TrEMBL record:
Entries under Pfam families matching the protein: Peptidase_S24 (PF00717)
Residue stretches making up the Peptidase S24/S26A/S26B/S26C domain: 23-135
Protein's name according to its UniProt entry: Peptidase S24
Biological classification of the source: Bacteria, Pseudomonadati, Pseudomonadota, Gammaproteobacteria, Pseudomonadales
Length: 145
């Protein structure tokens, strides 16, 4: 079964990076877009300055249909109230899982976004908690080193 490793709270760095407007083309570059529009703080953009934000590393492919892949880092807000349909870190019997929260007031179901992974029904006798709601994704585009 897929799992998630909690890495811990994100420390704000206060570093600003260049931001180009209106967008960066994925095809041929436009000479009109060669100028810097502003600088932005990734801390502000992703809310990293907030103490309730932490990182977790994804292990497995159950959420690949949502674009969340094995090895990705996900940003989790432990203060957000989870709703049905949210991607959450759910802890079942001490095991943290990154899944889609489903079901109703009588039955909790943890869903995948991959047809090869069946729903995980949380049984009445099992210990269940939601540790936080997925709010962002960090993916390394090229392995350096």
């Amino acid at each position: 079964m897929d799992s998630v490793t909690i890495l811990g709270q994100v420390e704000a760095g206060g570093i600003e990076v260049p931001y180009f407007l209106p967008s960066v083309p994925a095809g041929f570059p436009s000479p009109a877009q060669d100028h810097l529009e502003q600088r932005i703080s990734l801390d502000e953009l992703f809310g990293l300055h907030r103490p309730q934000i932490y990182l977790a590393r994804v292990a497995g492919e159950s959420l690949q249909g949502l674009g969340i892949l094995d090895g990705d880092l996900v940003l989790i807000d432990k203060a957000a109230k989870a709703k049905r349909g949210d991607v959450v870190i759910a802890c079942v019997n001490g095991e943290p899982l990154l899944k889609i929260l489903g079901g109703d007031q009588h039955q909790v179901i943890l869903l995948s976004a991959n047809p090869h992974y069946p729903p995980r029904y949380v049984l009445e006798a099992e210990e269940f908690q939601v540790w936080g709601v997925y709010v962002g994704l960090c993916r390394q585009g090229r392995h350096c080193g």
